[in-house]
Here is the input.
Amino acid sequence: MKKRGEFLFIEKNGDDYTLSMTPELQDDIGTSGFVEYTDADTIEAGDLILSVEASKTVLELDSPLAGKIVKRNEALINEPALLNSAKAEENWIITLTDVDEEAFNQLEEVKRYIS
Amino acid sequence: MDQEARLDYLTDYLLNEKTGATRTVVQPKRNTAQEKLALFRGLCNVRPPEPVTDEFITVQDAFLTQWNTERPLTALNDLEAAAPQIYVWQGDITSLAADVIVNAANSDFLGCTQANHECIDNIIHTRAGVELRLECDAVIKAQGRREPMGKAKMTKAYNLPADNIIHTVGPYIDARGVSPLKEKLLASSYRSCLALADEHGQSTIAFCCISTGEFNFPNKRAAEIAVQTTREYLNDSGSALNVIFNVFKDEDLYIYQTLLGMKE
Here is the structure.
C-alpha cells in the first residue's frame, strides 16, 4: 500500500515503510547535487531525514512518520541526482520500521501511480 | 572626522584591500557625498567575509550610527495595533527600533553580493555594517552546508537601531508558479522566525514580506500565509510576541490592511 505525506511517497511492505520522492517534489527542487542524511536512528514525525542542495532549492526533507531508520539509500551520497530518477528503486530515501500503522493509515492515499 | 571624511577613509581602505581585487564596482566617480556613499555601499556589498582592522570598525560604526539615526526611527510605541499583538507599518525596515527585524536571505547566507542592489538583504547588510557578513559567514561555516529554505537563524543587528536580525530563506518561485511545497516553506519561514524570537526571549519582531521581492512569490498569497501562520502560532503557543508586518510597497500595505480588516 502506498501513501503520501510531507511531499514524499510512503510504501508499506509488511513492517517496512520506504520513503521515496514524488514527481511534484522532484519538479520543485530541480536537480539534486548534494545530500546529507540525519545521524539519528530513531525519528519523530516532522524530524529532518535528508538535507538536499539542488539546482532550484536548498531544503530539508522531513519525515511524515515516526519510526526507526533501518536502511538508507547510500547510493544517493555519491550520486545525489538519483533523487531525480523516475524509478522508486533509485529515488528512495530511507526505510523505517517501528511505525505506528494507524499514523500511516491516516496519511493521504495515492490513488493512481506508475511504479 | 565628519561623515564625508569617514567615507573617504572607508572607501580608501576598501579600495586598497587585496581581498576584493577580482571584483569591480561600477561606481568610479567619488565627487559628491552621494557618490561617495554609493561607492562605499558597493564596496561593502562585494567584499568577501575577511577580517577588518579595529580602526576600520571604529570609523565605520561612527559613520553608520550617524547615517542610521539621522532619519526618523520608528518603535512599537509609535504604532497602533491592527489586532491583538499584530501591527502593520509601511517604511524602511532598517529604521525600525524593534528587538528583531527579519531579513529575507538567500541560501549562501552572506547577504546580497551585488553592488548597490536594491533588495532588503543588501540594505540590511549595508546599514548593519561589515560585521554582519562576518557573523553570517561564521554561522554558515559552522553549519557546514548552505542554508535551507523555511528555517531561521539569529544574529546581532550591529549598527541598526534593531537589536537582532533573524535571517530566513523563503521559497523561490520560478515560471511554474506557486506549489504546495512552496506554500509550506513560506509558512515554515514565518513559523521558524517566530519560534526563534521566542526562544531568545524577544518581545517584538518585524517581518518583511518574505519571498515577495527577488523571489517572486505573489504578494497577496504571501500575505495570506504570513497572517494565517502568525495568528496560528500566537494562538497555539500562547506567545506574547508583538508582530509587526513591515511593508515597503503601497500594494503590500493595501493587502495587509485588507487582510487584517483595517480597510472598509
